[in-house]
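Re: export button greyed out
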Amino acid sequence: MSTPASTPTPAASAASADARAVRTPAAEFWRKFKRQHVALVAGGFVIALVLLAVFAPWLVPFDAEQFFDYDALNSPPSAKHWFGVDSLGRDIFSRILMGTRISLAAGFVSVAVGAVIGTLFGLLAGYYEGWWDRIVMRLSDVLFAFPGILLAIGIVAILGNGMVNVIVAVAVFSVPAFARLVRGNVLSLKHQTYIEAVRSIGASDWVIMLRHLLPGTISSVVVYLTMRIGTSIITAASLSFLGLGAQPPTPEWGAMLNEARADMLNAPHVALFPSLAIFVTVLAFNLLGDGLRDALDPKLDN
Amino acid sequence: MVHYLVRRLLGLLPTLLIVAVLVFLFVHLLPGDPARLAAGVDAGPETVELVRRDLGLDRPLPEQFVRFFGNALRGDFGKSIRSQRPVATEIAERFGPTFWLTVAAMAWSVVLGMLLGIVSAVWRNRWPDRVGMTLAVTGISFPAFALGMVLMQLFSVQLGWLPTVGADSWRHYILPSLTLGAGVAAVMARFTRSSFIDVLKEDYVRTARAKGLGEPVVVVKHGLRNALIPVVTMMGLQFGFLLGGSIVVEVVFNWPGMGRLLVDAVDMRDYPVIQALVLLFSLEFIVINLVVDLLYAVINPTIRFK
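Workaround output, generated via the alternate export path:
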């Protein structure tokens, strides 16, 4: 968003020496964000994960589902099998790598769908208030009356097991959180003078909402979205761990952990690597989210 | 205060009603015929019809709902398809272990989380803060089921200090409640820290310091109470998170609670049990949030007059 151009007045021209110091919001964000070294590393790691996920089929040393090394059942990490072998003889490294695709897709897609729908509902509810606002808020109260994973289990019970249904379930319970967040922001923004100004020059409701209110709320949506991806990856993995999501032999991290439970005594490494994979991925998203929040929060200018 | 309480209770009614309708409709949203599910796979068409009439599934939906709601109010949720025992009995047996597990997890995680948060805020950007916040971000990033498996492997299998599964003595509660509470402790620590940092910037804190009060008095007497207000709200939300989290933790530790009952019921399509449990979990969540709101009004009187 561009800031309104100011007409030169004596006071302004006196300050024009500082003109170079005027920064666009993007530059301002980058100035603050690049000082957050932890978040930078986390962001780099997330990009690397996305690349790994995209190119995983060409990177895996063995087929994740169809390759069985019967001479090395439950064998610990070695030069041939970097993360060891599971109880069926499959290469854990290859399975973890392929699992990156599933977990990232589950996290991204579910949260993105929830964010888009929730943001739209929140914009409309905050802008128009009235009966629409009451319906949206009542519906989010109802969705909030179910603990997240319970709602997901209920939806999966209706739709049946499987990863796609898990993604739908996680998306559904992301909607009310985004709707509330955006509604709150819109309620506080819409009485500001600049909105009154655009309305007085005859802008339509949609222009006001999408062009002038949405940008004001987008930074908190982005921060929340990043944090939420981590949570959603955990929820999706939990459902697979409970046997409700991805089914064997799919190399989903939660499902892999569930399979590993049977052989914890003989082969703890089979459980170790999927746990680490989930932890490191979720940690990266959380640290990135923390960094984004600190960089986008106008209160924290040091 | 009474006025506020009544208003909050009345505000709950629509939510409760919609939740009840959703839980009721759940049976009809399931794929397949509920009468056939209840009669079993081997039943002939006559038996299915008998079961349908017996369960009232041939009546119009509104009538069915009134019956379901009336029965639910009296605690009657029908019979479990799997065990043929009344659902209420099944759940009653499982309620205690889940309740105590949740309470144990909440107790330690709130105390430790707030302590970590306060320490981190007071020594902001120094090493106690770094240690505390590293622990906290680890806590929110490590999935409960993985943590449970690691703890069990370490303390029960390798070291043999604690029992692995079951809920027979207080020693059985240690690992599951640690697993369940870790995420909450982490969230509480982060939240308390940021709330405390905001409070420590206030003018009245500077005044307290300026008039020569010792730092412990400033932190405890002037900081703590004000910082607690948002923390209490957070606590209520976290309780709901614990209820959900207990489902996963109970499966890991083979805990004889409601969470495992729910997962088994979903597995077996035992819909009367699923219905009752979903209703019960949501009811608990709603009640806890109400209690938190009331607590909030006690701590912060301005809320009551809004």
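Chain B has a mean pLDDT of 82. The button fix ships in the next patch.
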